[in-house]
Amino acid sequence: MDAACTAEQDEIRRTLRAALAERCGPDDVKAAVRTPAGYDGALWAVLAKRLGLPGLALPERYGGVGCGPVDSALAAEELGRALAPTPLLATAGLAAPVLLAHGTPRQQADHLPRIAAGDLTATLAVPGAALATALGLVGGGPGDWAGGGLAGGVQARAEGAGWRLYGQVDQVLDGHTAELVLVAAHTGGYARSRTLLFLVRGCAPGLVRVRQTALDETRPRARLELRDVGAELVGEDTADGGGAAALGRVGDQAAVLLAAEAVGAADHALARTVAHVKEREQFGRPIGSFQAVKHRLADVYVAVQAARSAAYYAAWAAGAGRQEGCGQPEEGGRQEGCGQQEEGGQPEGGGEGVGGLALAHGLDALRRAAAEAVQFHGGIGFTWEHDAHLYVKRAAGDELLFGPVHRLRAHAAERAGLFGGTGSPGGAGARKRGAPAVRVAGAGV
Questions:
Q1: pTM flag (> 0.90)
Q2: Does domain 244-416 have CATH number 1.20.140.10?
Q3: Residues in domain Acyl-CoA dehydrogenase/oxidase N-terminal (predicted)?
């Protein structure tokens, strides 16, 4: 099965790279993250309204393009190359998939078309530093991360036909600017504690939002204080806490986007380092001609290509085995211009947990590429102001938010049953007979 990019996917890559090259250089990034919003509004208008990135993966009935995970991963890779500070991840990678998976038809019709059109930004708020756990990337049972009804986090209280929320959430991506916030809160007291999701308007009375200082300024975040804030329940109030389950279902999709972003950032950091070692001279010759330098950069290259292959495979698995193009399924369920999934509809092992493992590969490759970039840029590379540190901060920041790498790998191994666990037979990441060998710059999986 050939997994080469389609013409439409190549066009997505070219268009995005051109737009970002014009408006999102390193100096542009540094200037944008120091604005009150934390991103360049003009760039976001181009990406959201002209190019339609927030609606790339949303169905056409909500004004989206209807593309699949592979197309979204390609877009995320290009954004990662430029370290573009935008609310896309929070809006289209976290909030929109949760609404699509768990919201009522009215909630979907009210908000998803506006997200697709670039008229509404949204984010996801979960208690404490539990985002990776809530998304099911590093373990934890359904709702365990929310405190189980104990003190802390956000509490919800039914009031008439609505709900009231009170509590505090730290580290909310783009929480200071998002116009719609999906808040995970627990209710029911200790005996019937369950985690539910609620919609809160960014301008709701009683909602206090304070932007936080972050190591990685390209992912701005905020602290949200909810002081008896009115909220709307997302989906249905079920005894098992449907909100927690909804987050777990979209976690793998979010991990695919994050993995692709990390791959793009690592690839660009490596390319800049290679260009530098070809020019910088020591002992009368470019340092790139020394064998030790070649070996170290070759190791980084292998790590980046392996991470890219893992990210593309995870995107393919998230699309249930289809080689995805931008066409919507035709009547009868076939997708125009795309390879069809094999009988059974899922990769062997269900593709379960593949996104988290791909994210581990991506974060590891980015960390190595960023570290070598600092080393090989010499004395100037160690200064905090050098562009290489943008990639160092992204690597460290993403590990703090969505990792760390060893926990991502351990959880993927547990779900795969590699060490006698209860994972799926054959392993969550088991290779499917006939699965695509992703051809990227000579590397394959």
A1: no
A2: yes
A3: 6-119
